[in-house]
Design brief:
The complex is a heterodimer of chains A (183) and B (381).
Chain A (H helix, E strand, L loop, with lengths): L2 H43 L2 H18 L7 H23 L1 H7 L11 H16 L2 H11 L4 H8 L3 H24 L1
Helix pairs in contact in A: 1-2, 1-3, 2-3, 3-5, 3-6, 5-8, 6-8, 7-8
Chain B lengths: L5 H9 L6 H9 L1 H21 L8 H13 L27 H22 L8 E7 L1 H11 L3 H5 L10 E3 L2 E8 L2 E8 L2 E2 L3 H8 L13 E10 L2 E7 L10 E6 L2 E8 L8 E7 L2 E4 L4 H10 L5 H9 L6 E7 L2 E8 L2 E8 L5 E6 L4 E7 L3 H11 L1
Parallel strand pairs in B: 1-12
Antiparallel strand pairs in B: 2-3, 3-4, 4-7, 5-6, 6-9, 7-8, 8-11, 9-10, 10-16, 13-14, 14-15, 15-16
Chain lengths: 183, 381
């Protein structure tokens, strides 16, 4: 094998090493943040399996978006989880009757889910789908454990405004919930 | 000082240290702001309750495997521009220390040993009515192999297929294996595929149930096999002391096993459901005391394993379920019948084994979390 051939093999091996190292970094990133992302998504979609589907989609997107550098991605995946989950519940609203048909095909409910919990989660999901997107997002982010600073970064607002947004969103949630209860 | 804006009062609930002290002082002394704060706190608490979710502990291991499959397949098609194809290192699926086949072999060995003991307990019959967990680590397996006079490889390689005296004559497999204390001979027929649960039921002689609803990610049935009855006879030689010249015959099966693939067109098995008649053993006259004493006095039998055998109590009604090292065992009820749930330490794989009131032993094994495996089991229980 000539010098060029050896160089080509060396380059190929280096490339594989880099890819393998990147793959390991992505796996570490995934394992570190997967549960937090699922929890955020579940607070919106209300169903653990769908939350895991959302998380899957989010991490696939993160892999494409942050090649090799996942430092920035930790906050991004959380925000993406909230928006992707909100998209999912808004899609449900649009689908209307189709959603009802799909409920029959929903896989096994987890044993800990009670009927009351399911009804409550369905109400909350509907309301989150109706609220302005920013209000829904700030609710999910805050009650999913994100700090005011993280929420401000995620929504592109000043940190001093997060409290105001959150207050309005919680007030709107209460009113909508009361309306659901009395309707 | 002017009254405090709602947004600041809200933040006071969550991040009080981020709010100036004068705000807290004002709220403490202002009836109006204090009342608004209470209302805001109430709304906040209610929102927290509404948005709370069960303490979900998603299985990261399974999720990672699922994501890796998509990455390896070059998924997703949309928007994958400029990104190298995934070349992550492949990690083997982590089952509880042993493969399914090795687990079955270990299980069969345990049944033989327990059956041998139990046959003596009742002199003529072993008819288990429930299952119980018995922990086994690698040294236990080696000890069992040494105890029986088998090599390590023979214990883990499967059963009914090999051994020095194995031969297949047409559809029948007969064989024998020399043990340290005698011989074991067996006869069985070759496993046959079945095209449906109804056909499997007809061939097995009992009703075969398959789950109507599968957990997400589990595909259709890849293969449905009927393993015919296995008859094995252990004959004790002169080295077995008081058991010399006696024998125990174990009748096991048939077994119907359904193996499921994964959704998305991959061949990775994700779930297996097996049903078998409980094993029955007959003895030519060895007594309970003779066989129990023989088993427990064998040199090299780990003391903790001997203790577990003693703790099983009435072996004639107990089917031991081997628990590999690293797996957790817990008691569950399936359809009202007691069972043993085995869970991998990472909850990436689980198995549940139980015996129903009709004398059938069921096993559900999955590269799934324990909830999914139990949900499948409950459909069959």
């Amino acid at each position: 094998m000539g010098v060029i051939g050896l160089q080509a093999r060396h380059d190929e091996r280096s490339e594989r090493r880099e890819e393998s190292s990147e793959a390991a970094a992505f796996e570490r990133f995934f394992r570190a943040h997967y549960r937090a992302v699922v929890r955020l998504a579940q607070s919106v979609v209300g169903d653990s399996q769908r939350a895991q589907d959302v998380a899957q989609e989010v991490f696939l997107a993160a892999y494409r978006r942050f090649p090799g550098d996942y430092q920035q991605a930790a906050g991004w995946v959380r925000v993406a989880a909230v928006h992707t989950a909100l998209n999912a519940v808004r899609g449900e609203r649009r689908r209307g009757k189709r959603e009802l048909a799909m409920q029959g095909a929903t896989p096994l409910p987890s044993p800990e889910e009670t009927v009351i919990d399911q009804e409550r989660r369905a109400d909350v999901r509907r309301i989150l789908g109706r609220l302005p997107r920013r209000s829904a997002a700030v609710l999910v982010m805050r009650h999913g454990g994100m700090s005011y600073l993280e929420i401000a970064d995620a929504l592109g607002v000043k940190v001093g405004n997060v409290g105001t947004l959150l207050r309005r969103a919680e007030s709107a949630l209460r009113k909508e919930m009361d309306r659901e209860t009395h309707s | 000082m002017r009254h405090i804006p709602d947004g600041v009062l809200r933040r006071l609930e969550d991040e009080p240290l981020a709010v100036p002290d004068r705000v807290s002082d004002h709220v403490a002394s202002c009836e109006r702001c204090s009342a608004r704060r209470a209302e805001i706190a109430e709304d906040s608490e209610r929102a927290g309750q509404l948005l709370s979710t069960p303490q979900l502990v998603p299985d990261t291991e399974i999720a990672w495997r699922r994501l890796r499959r998509e990455l390896e397949a070059g998924e997703p098609a949309r928007g994958n521009r400029g990104r190298p194809r995934w070349r992550g290192h492949s990690r083997a699926v982590r089952l509880p220390s042993v493969s399914l086949r090795a687990g079955l072999a270990i299980g069969a060995t345990a049944v033989v040993i327990a059956g041998t003991a139990a046959a003596a307990t009742l002199t003529t019959i072993f008819a288990p009515t429930h299952v119980a967990a018995v922990s086994l680590n690698q040294s236990d397996l080696r000890a069992i192999a040494a105890f029986a006079g088998l090599g390590d490889g023979q214990l883990a390689a499967g059963h009914g297929q090999g051994g020095p005296g194995s031969r297949q004559t047409g559809p029948t497999t007969n064989g024998f294996q020399t043990l340290r204390f005698g011989t074991v001979t067996w006869s069985s027929s070759a496993p046959r595929p079945a095209s449906s649960a109804a056909q499997a039921s007809a061939e097995a002689g009992f009703r075969v149930l398959l789950p109507a609803r599968r957990p997400r990610g589990v595909g259709g049935v890849q293969q449905l096999m009927v393993e015919p009855r296995l008859k094995a006879t252990v004959s004790f030689n002169s080295t077995a002391g008081s058991l010399a010249g006696k024998s125990v015959t174990i009748d096991a099966g048939p077994v119907v096993a359904a193996e499921y693939g994964a959704t998305g067109g991959t061949d990775l098995p994700t779930l297996a459901v097996a049903t078998m008649r409980r094993p029955i053993a007959h003895s030519t006259g060895a007594t309970a005391q003779q066989i129990e004493a023989f088993l427990l006095s064998r040199p090299g039998l780990p003391p903790q394993l001997a203790e577990q055998i003693r703790l099983l109590g009435d072996l004639s009604t107990t089917l031991p379920v081997p628990v590999p090292a690293g797996a957790r065992a817990s008691s569950v009820k399936v359809g009202g019948w007691p069972g043993v749930l085995l869970t991998d330490s990472s909850n990436a794989a689980a198995a549940v084994v139980w015996e129903d009131g009709g004398g059938l032993v069921h096993a559900v094994v999955g590269i799934l979390d324990s909830h999914d495996v139990l949900n499948v089991a409950q459909q069959l229980g």
